[in-house]
Amino acid sequence: MSTDPITASWETNAAAWTTAVRDGLIPSRRAGTDAAIVEICLRLAPRRMLDVGCGEGWLARAIGEQGVQVTGVDASAPLIYAARETGGATFEVASYDTLISDAAVVPGPWDLVVCNFALLGHPVAPLLSALRDRLSTGGHLLIQTVHPWVAAGEGAYASEWRTETFAAFPVAFPAHMPWYFRTLADWIHQTRLAGLMIEEVVEPLHPETRRPLSMILSLVRQ
Fold this sequence. Notes:
Number of strands: 9
Mean pLDDT: 97
Shape: globular
Radius of gyration: 16 Å
């Protein structure tokens, strides 16, 4: 098992996460976050896409079905095995540290790189910088993450480590997961450090409450 606590949690929780995603058990995804990221990916009309932190592979499959050449990478080997069993894209095990240190891993160039609820650690600028270098000319990097103004909850609006217990999920997760809550200003800072600039911000809204479900940053090279 990985010594990185985030990766270790995804190795332990792989089966539960696969069930939750494939059975449509995550309300925010049903309400609009899945549709939002697919819509933006297809609007950008990539020929080649890299799905970073692809999990069990749902997004890679959805975009691959539209004729796009897609590769998904994830540090969790059990999640990659689940993705390969279903197919629909190319899937490889690769940690974020490997993507940073070895430019020969999934080198691209990629017209589109997507991190869909996949940037959970701190800092993220080194990874974003490595992904920027894999973009084709005119390529885009998309980040979908929890909306900072909603995800802050009752806690302080400050960038800090938190713990996801998965208690709200209708399936049992055997392990908790550490994750880094990031303010909007911090997201802007990290992307600038990585040599990226924000071209567009999309805030998918819940169809009934009209509150933000997530935040999507569309980034290009500075």
